[in-house]
Amino acid sequence: MERGLAKNSMSAYRRDLLRYAEYLEKSGVSNFPDVTATNVSDFLVALRLGDSAHPALAPSSAARTVIAVRGLHAFLAKEGVMTTDPARSVKPPGSYKRLPKALSFTEIEQLLAAVGVESSSDISVLMMRDQALLELLYGTGARISELMDLTLDDVSTLSKDLPILRLRGKGDKERLVPVGSHALSALDRYLVRARPALASKTRPESAVFLNARGGKLSRQSAWTILQEAASRAGLAGKVSPHTMRHSFATHLLENGADVRVVQELLGHASVTTTQIYTLVTVDQLREVYATAHPRAQTRSDT
Fold first, then answer.
1. 245 annotated active-site
2. What keywords is this UniProt entry annotated with (predicted)?
């Protein structure tokens, strides 16, 4: 809370520390001053191996958990609860730098077209909401939690003359992101034609995106909306909210956007995080090499 972390981050750290406390209890350690470096390193091994109660964690997830444990012990040592910091020498596991999964622009179009807007019936009210949500996910590169936290005040100044959206990201940091014409039209249609019908069903709610009962749309419901559209578009199993964010960044860079501009749009604290999107696949390397290098292929005599 002192660092201004997002609620989702705090929830993740809470789960990590509860798992650590459970592990210590099973290991016979009931007081923090009794914890040793071996306990902490053994906990890391347990994270990677998993057990009947917990699945094995990937290196990135295990690293986050160890970082939470290291933060806890550093705090306890600073506060005088412990005389030493047993976690200080335990390093988080390294994770492989994987390429983000991104959809092609054709697949993005198929996905967005899978949500239709037809009549003024109740089902089309939800369709207008869903289309606005998906258009904004791809059109702004926002995290799903950022769109769920959007309020009417955040979009009150949005217009064709000033298509700039204010988003609140990790650490409660605000950033301004341009909104393209397609996303702007979808959002305007939802706010004018659909949201009033949803909002009338319950007490006033300031959130932009509402559920069928008029309450704030949850992240889980937004995930379901995206999955259903992906299924209709023939993209089942390939799409998550973060896929849309990856696609946003990848397509910008492929079309010549500067990496530091993309960093600002994504709200990354470091450009290093953004630079992973500049990596290319082996297939892309092979294709460019084959078409661009003058001696990449054998030429037939004429």
1. yes
2. Cell cycle, Cell division, Chromosome partition, Cytoplasm, DNA integration, DNA recombination, DNA-binding
- Among residues 166, 170, 182, 216, the one annotated as catalytic is 170
Residue 178: which of 257, 106, 243 has the closest Cα?
Answer: 257
Report phi then psi at 171, rounded to 5.
70, 15
What are 251-302's pLDDT values in tens digits?
998 888 888 888 888 888 777 677 777 665 455 666 667 777 777 665 554 4
160 tagged catalytic: no
Active site residue 242: yes
Domain 105-292 carries which CATH code?
1.10.443.10
What CA–CA distance (Å, rounded) separates 35 from 30? 9
Which tens digit of pLDDT belongs to each residue from 109-143? Answer: 999 998 864 444 455 889 999 999 999 999 999 99
> Would you list the domain boundaries of the chain?
7-79, 105-292
Count the neighbouring beta carbons within 10 Å of the beta carbon of residue 207. 18
20 is catalytic: no
Choose the catalytic residue: 19, 70, 73, 245.
245
Given 238, 242, 260, 286, which residue is catalytic? Answer: 242
> What residues contact 181, with CB distance under 8 A and at least 6 apart?
160, 163
Query: Alpha helix (H) ranges present in the chain?
Result: 7-26, 37-49, 59-78, 105-113, 122-140, 144-148, 152-155, 181-189, 195-199, 219-232, 241-254, 259-266, 271-275, 282-292
User: Whole-structure pTM over 0.85, yes or no?
Assistant: no
Catalytic annotation on 170?
A: yes
Helix, coil or strand: residue 175: strand
User: Is 293 labeled as catalytic in the residue annotation?
Assistant: no
Q: Which of 132, 121, 86, 149 is nearest to 226 (CA)?
A: 132
